[in-house]
Each structure stands twice: as structure tokens, then as C-alpha cells.
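Cross-posting from the chemistry board since nobody answered there.

I work mostly on the small-molecule side, so proteins are not my area. We synthesized glutathione and want a rough idea of how it might sit in this target. Sequence and SMILES are below. Is it possible to get a predicted 3D structure of the two together?
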Amino acid sequence: MGELILHHYEGSPYCEKIRVLFGLKDLAWRGVDIPTIMPKPDYLPLTGGYRRTPSLQVGADVYCDTRLIAAEIERRRPEPSLYADSEGLDTALSQWGEAGMFYPAALFYIGLYADKFPMEFHRDRAAMRGGRADLERTKAQAAPRLAQLRPHLAWLEDMLGDGRPYLLGERPGLGDLACYHPLWFLGRGSKTAAELDPYTRLRAWLERLAAIGHGKHSEMTAADALDRARDSEPEAISDPGGGFTPGAALGDRVAVGCEDRVPEPVVGELVIDRLNEIAVRRSDPRVGEVVVHFPRLGYVVSAV
Ligand SMILES: N[C@@H](CCC(=O)N[C@@H](CS)C(=O)NCC(=O)O)C(=O)O
């Protein structure tokens, strides 16, 4: 297996999901610490414009979005399985957890501690959503977002009600990791962590997940990671798929953009078009030819 390089930063919940996945699979990996806000001059040459965090680099292949990163790690290291139950059930649980809890938890935390974040951070996140920073509005979000989060906390407590250690039974899986990381983020502040106090089973479950750890990890510089991409060839594609993207065929020049915020499209030649994966080949003077991969869900492909 090629060296796994996670472009991440410490305080990112989605990165924590993948770091614990490395722990679950007892994997060795390298980390590159990337900026939390734009500009990201040593990151975008690799991704072609995707600015979100994290991405996983393996040589000259770059996997964007934790939904695909998790599937790719599972493909490369199937044991122990990432799925505590079936792939379908774990994935459905993880979709629910992230869709239901990530924004309420993040906006509760950021609203409550708004004055502790630099104004550049607020401007960056507002721009990412296509708006303008408004500190008072950000602060006013804390209470309603907490109200939206609470039903999810109660449901998680209920899921653990029969004393099972993990959401789908005896083993931790993708569903656990996706529900864990937004709440891990709350644990970083005493006032936000206090919201979890009434849920005793939930807290014990969070502790079990935290105890999994992060596998074996060492950092590397962004420059070394870019050199690694430049000195590698993208992996051969044995099964490119085809026919899954309306309006685009393998070999077409396309733009792949996020659908839930400013799209920041990544442009290249469509080289993978599978049920759950899209990839484009592109090149950049700093890294040469790379293939950038995305999950199907959450991304839109348009012809260029
Ligand atoms: N669906 C994406 C969401 C990733 C995401 O929103 N990450 C946050 C950090 S936790 C982010 O990108 N924030 C802006 C940034 O880091 O530039 C995934 O699963 O990877």
C-alpha cells in the first residue's frame, strides 16, 4: 500500500473522523498540517481548487471528502472492516449523523465562542457559504443550533439504550465515526462539552471511540507532499466505469464542484465515473499529472 498522507489540521472534526479510522485499522500514516482558512497555496495545486479539509493523498492520487476517503481506506485495508454491520446500514447511519449533527454542533460551538475566533476565520467561512461575515448573527446562532442538536443527542442515547458498546452492536464502524466527530468538536470547549453531561451512555460511547486513538502517525511538510505527487504516477485505473453521470462521458473535460456551498470546481478529464466515485485527471506545474477523486454524493459534474 502506498504511503497514506492526510492533509489535515488538528481542530477539524472531519479530520478527526479519518484519524480515528486510522486508529481503527491500526494504520501508519503521514499528516500535512494545512491552513484552516484560505489561502492554501501548498494545498490547492494538489486538489485543483478543492479547499475543504481533509483530503487523502496516495502518491499522485488525491481523494477528497471523508465519505470517499473512508471507502478508499477500506479498499486498501479491508481488515478489520470499517462496517460494523452492512456497508448500507453503516453508510446510512453516517449520512444521518453528519447531515443532522455537523452544522448544529459546529455553529453552536462557533456561535458560543465567536469572540475567540479571529475575524479572518469568520470572513473565510462566510465567503465559503457565499455570504458576508456578521459576528452578531453568528453569536445568535448558538441557541437555535443547540436546540436542533439536542434531539440527535437523545436519539444517540436511545440507540445505546440496551447497553451495546457501539451504535450497531459490539464493534465500532463508520456509523460511529460519523456521529462521533461533531460531538468530539463540542468536547473542545467546557461550555459546549457541558451540554453532553446529561447523556451518560453517550459520554461513555464517546470515551470508547476516543480511546481507539489515531494509529501510527508522523507529520511531513507540504513541500514534501507536493514533491511526492510530482515524483509519482497516478495509479492505473482498471475499472473506470461509465454511464453514471448524466451529460458527461469518460474522456470529457468536466468540472466537479461541491453542491452545498461555493462550488470551487475542479476541472479535468473524467477518468472514473462509477456509482459512488468520480475522478478527474489534471495537471499542475507544481505536481505534474494527478488524479483527483470525489464521492458521488455532494458533488455535481458539469461539462466544460
Ligand atoms: N463532506 C466533507 C465536509 C468536510 C468539511 O466541511 N470540512 C471542514 C473542516 S472540518 C472544512 O473544510 N472547512 C473549511 C476548510 O477547512 O477550509 C467531508 O466529508 O470531507
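Reply from a structural biologist on the board:
Welcome over. Reading the output above for you: Residues 12-14, 36, 51-53, 65-67, 298 surround glutathione (CB under 6 Å). The radius of gyration is 19 Å. Happy to explain the C-alpha cell format if needed.
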